[in-house]
Design a protein that fits this description.
Elements (H helix, E strand, L loop, with lengths): L1 H16 L3 H12 L6 H23 L7 H28 L20 H10 L2 H17 L7 H27 L7 H28 L5
């Protein structure tokens, strides 16, 4: 069971570290709200509600296909390849440019990033073009390979908690740091964290591809 929690956490952390609409919204709310130190918490709670709903929908909508060996093999291979590609691009982007997140509000950049933090966590997750795609392919691959199902409620709970912890350990400290005057994140720390997460994605993706090829899932 600890394997489910750990893998879910590391995969989620890699996605959380990548800049996107949710991070921009969190920065805005942390700077502009009276209780900005809580912005990250509410953003992640909204994001978590959306992801919990998606997990349930995936389990409900694909339960029939879980009995199809060809479907399981195809999803396993495609999902593993996506993890490899995502990890590769994450590392490549680190070396292509200097990663540094400046915590300031550029009015043009954050135009439209307003509203309730909790609702924003849902809305700005959906505005990320990779979010739904990630869950439809990579998320589904993890669910299949980690044998997440309604028949295994503890595994389902650990998968969800591990995934959300990956968001909590990034967004909440960032939100607090910004609120109390932090201007930028140490680029070396950010860079190496991305490299480690990218390498994990590649290794785990390779494992998934070979595992599903040589040890096909049972139906």
């Amino acid at each position: 069971m600890i394997e489910i929690f750990t893998i879910s956490f590391l995969v989620a952390l890699t996605g959380a570290l990548s800049p996107g609409p949710v991070l921009t919204f969190t920065i805005y709310k942390s700077l502009k709200s009276k209780k900005g130190y809580l912005a990250g918490l509410f953003v992640v709670l909204g994001h978590a509600l959306l992801e919990f709903s998606l997990i349930i929908l995936l389990l409900l909508g694909t339960s029939f296909f879980f009995q199809n060996l060809i479907f399981l093999i195809i999803v396993g291979i495609v999902g593993g390849i996506c993890l490899i590609v995502f990890g590769f691009f994450t590392i490549r982007e680190v070396y292509k440019k200097q990663y540094e997140i400046e915590f300031n509000v550029n009015e043009k950049k954050i135009e439209g990033f307003k509203g309730n933090s909790f609702i924003g966590g849902i809305f700005y997750s959906l505005t990320n073009p990779y979010f739904v795609f990630w869950w439809a392919v990579t998320g589904l691959t993890l669910i299949i390979n980690l044998k997440i199902s309604f028949q295994n409620p503890l595994g389902l709970l650990l998968f969800f908690l591990g995934h959300e912890l990956g968001d909590f350990v990034w967004y909440i400290p960032i939100s607090t740091f910004i609120y109390f005057g932090g201007k930028s994140l140490n680029p070396k720390i950010y860079k190496y964290a991305l490299i480690v997460c990218g390498a994990f994605m590649i290794i785990f993706g390779i494992y998934l591809v070979f595992n599903v090829m040589f040890f096909p899932p049972s139906v």
